[in-house]
Design goal:
Helix content is 71%, strand content 0%. By secondary structure, the chain is an all-alpha fold. The chain is elongated. It holds the Pfam family Nebulin.
Length: 173
């Protein structure tokens, strides 16, 4: 029984026109080194052909562009101060004026933003209870109960002053 199974296992019969078999044949042709090198050998046999997208040509173009960009940047650095007529921004009065205006405007924006948000107060929930407890404590305490109106600086024998003093003391009590 086992020998029959081993023999049958090695003999696989599959029709050759199934998609899997056709794909495997195409893959074998693509992988084959002979077919891979065939087009290259034919091109070599005809003549020397150098296309525009060849690697050495691309390399030469890239190195030319890099050198050109380097020269441009070098010339730009030399001419940088000559465009304005001054070596830097601090030496030019117009640029100094523009920088000063920018600073003032920045301060105005900051102050405007600060004024907008300074009146908005965000208290946590427990902060309100603390404030109400402080207010209640000040109402209950006897510290601010009596308000003295003022100290008297006059002669003690003036009748109108004595009468006013008694009236103010009664009002205060």
């Amino acid at each position: 029984y086992r020998e029959a199974w081993d023999k049958d296992k090695t003999q696989v019969s599959m029709p050759s026109d199934t998609p899997v078999m056709l794909q495997s044949k195409v893959n074998a042709l693509n992988i084959s080194n002979k077919h891979y090198q065939k087009a290259w050998d034919e091109a070599k046999a005809k003549s020397y052909d150098l296309r525009a997208d060849a690697i050495p040509i691309k390399h030469a173009k890239a190195s030319r562009d890099i050198a050109s960009e380097y020269k441009y940047k070098l010339d730009h650095e030399k001419q940088k101060g000559h465009y304005v007529g001054v070596p830097n921004a601090q030496a030019d009065t117009k640029m100094q004026f523009a920088l000063g205006i920018g600073k003032v405007q920045s301060e105005l924006e900051y102050k405007r933003h600060f004024a907008k948000w300074k009146t908005q107060c965000h208290l946590p929930v427990d902060m309100l209870s603390i404030q109400s407890a402080k207010h209640g404590q000040s109402l209950v305490s006897d510290v601010d109960y009596r308000h003295y109106l003022h100290q008297w600086i006059c002669l003690p024998d003036q009748n109108d002053i004595i009468h006013a003093r008694k009236a103010y003391d009664l009002q205060s009590d």
